[in-house]
Amino acid sequence: MRYRTETPLLVVRGWSHPSLPRKILPLGKNYKVGDSNEWSVPEESDFYYKWSEEKQFHVGDNLLFYYNDQVNDVLEVSSDLEFISCDTSSPVATHNTGQDLIKLTKPGIQYFISSKTGQCEAGLKLRVVVRPLFRALPRTRRMRSSPLDRSSSGYTDSDPNPITKHFFLMIWFWIS
């Protein structure tokens, strides 16, 4: 009896990056809030503002809040007004373990304040701008126009797959 061995063959038409499910995020950077100062009332009221502005946060990154849980906590608030006025009446989340890991899961602005009397007003608050996970690819300048650049060929500059563009240009140069 003969056995037939078949080798699976994968045919790739073009490379594209699959969309990531919303709940699964790649490993991001870990940021210890306040660095060596940790999460405590700062000497300068704009300390956490400056700390945040020096960083570029992205979806998937983590904020690590370290503090004395007997005298402090971390509240997430939802608006700029709540942040500015240190309004603790309706937090989105409350963290009070002294070692809180907060994953940045969506682009936008996130606000964190202390609920302890006078601490937020003294500068114990953090505003973080979270950028999207993926950055747009830079557009390349066209070196030379070709028949493949015309829309009648089915290829357009808006093709999201840069491999396709390079593949067609390589074929065009090889033919001409």
Automatic annotation (TrEMBL):
Matching Gene3D superfamilies: Cupredoxins - blue copper proteins
Residues annotated as transmembrane: none
InterPro entries, sorted: Cupredoxin, Phytocyanin-like, Phytocyanin_dom
Molecular functions (GO terms): electron transfer activity
Entry GO CC: plasma membrane
Keywords tagged on the record: Disulfide bond, Glycoprotein
Keyword Disulfide bond: yes
Lineage top rank: taxon: Eukaryota
Any Pfam family: Cu_bind_like
Phytocyanin domain mapped to chain residues: 29-132
Matching PANTHER family: BLUE COPPER PROTEIN, PHYTOCYANIN DOMAIN-CONTAINING PROTEIN
Record protein name field: Phytocyanin domain-containing protein
Protein's organism: Microthlaspi erraticum
